[in-house]
Amino acid sequence: MYGREKNIGKVFGEVTVLEFVRVAKGSSIYTCKCSCGVIKEFYIGNLRSGKSLSCGCITKQLLSERSKTHGERRTRLYGIWTNMKSRCYNENVDSYEHYGARGISICEEWRDSYEKFRDWAVKNGYSDSLSIDRIDANGDYSPENCRWATDIQQARNKTTTWFVEINGVKKTAKEWCEIYGVNYKTAHTRKSRGWSDVNAVSTA
To answer: Is the pTM of this model over 0.90?
Structure first.
């Protein structure tokens, strides 16, 4: 029973697993709750494969959205929106482990409406040379936590970025190296040899 219990509490798309019910057709069935409030039974295999991501409410929303003609499904911005949803809710994509698996989601307004996401993008400096970036790399996709950034800004905002605080000011190590004229590889080598962060990036 332990193997089945480990699925309880897991979230697949909009569905949260509540309890094991029975085995049918070679797959375990669980009682689950959709984010819209509906409680129903799901095959765990369908949840894991991404075949079932909601009680059906998302499908209804998508069908409703597809009935609208915005003519933008082949645009770069529409692709950004669909990829954002995939990495947050589709376990089958490689990037899911860095987003959805870490608990990162999309605000309801954007998740349910491409038009609202598009309107925010246009008003906030979108261009084909920029990518969407979360200001707090551990936060969700929402108007308050997103901006359009260059590849360099994106790289500096990764969770693995080395930050250093000097005199109360926090910047990336690369930025401090640029300020003090220190080669970044040199600074990184100093850090690995036990130098303090401040001395590593500021000693010319």
So the answer is: no
